[in-house]
Write a structure and sequence with these properties.
The chain is α/β, with parallel strands linked by helices and 201 residues long. It has helices at 15-22, 80-92, 98-109, 116-130, 186-193; strands at residues 4-7, 26-29, 43-48, 51-56, 59-60, 73-74, 136-139. 33% of the residues are buried.
Length: 201
């Protein structure tokens, strides 16, 4: 098996993303692709009392049809930080490990990163530490065409695509929507299972 997995950048990615990371020694985050809308690159899903809830980071695309993901800026004209943090508090405030991790994530989200890539990368590093996955993470420096290799998951982990991945069952604050549970952000397991998170990937 190749030692390196190729992944897209992602905002509070689903557990499938971290399950893939756990299988490899090194992680390469795609830095050279054109930004892809309606993907995990700027969105995540959490479990609220009303079911699966989408949280999306607004971005500035400008007039360019194709913009490299590394150049995608976050749009702070919208109050997305307050909305996301409020939704996370409402959904997970009563979960067993909320107080252990929320302030760390909150601090990162409120740092006003200019680029989505930087926000995602800081969140990724923090969450890898929380779930005790010690991996080397770096960026690609050249775009490689998609060739269907087993370790290339840049476009396979997507909210729009079916997946064979199914996270293990665990106690949640709200009953999960079975059809959408695989899309849930890693924070769903993290807030509910804490140090055991890695065992549930």
């Amino acid at each position: 098996m190749p030692a390196t997995v190729y992944l897209s950048t992602a905002y509070l990615p689903p557990s499938e993303y971290f399950a893939a990371i756990a299988e490899y020694d090194e992680v390469l985050i795609e830095n050279e692709e054109n930004y892809l809308k309606q993907s995990y690159r700027n969105r995540c899903y959490i479990l609220s009392s009303d079911g699966i809830q989408l949280l999306s980071v607004p971005v500035l695309l400008g007039s360019l049809h194709k913009t490299p993901v590394r150049d995608i800026r976050i749009d702070y004209s919208k109050r997305w930080q307050q909305v996301h943090l409020g939704a996370i508090m409402s959904s997970y405030g009563s979960s067993p490990f909320f107080l252990y991790y929320f302030e760390i994530l909150q601090k990162i989200i409120l740092e006003n990163h200019i680029f989505i890539l930087d926000l995602n990368q800081e969140l990724l590093r923090a969450i890898l530490g929380m779930i005790r996955l010690d991996k080397k993470v770096s960026f690609t420096n050249k775009f490689q065409p998609v060739e269907g290799k087993s370790n290339d998951l840049r476009y396979r982990i997507s909210p729009k695509k079916a997946s064979l991945y199914h996270p293990k069952k665990y106690q949640q604050v709200f009953d999960p929507d079975i059809q959408g549970s695989r899309q849930l952000s890693i924070i769903d397991i993290l807030f509910n299972k804490g140090p055991e998170t890695k065992a549930y990937l």
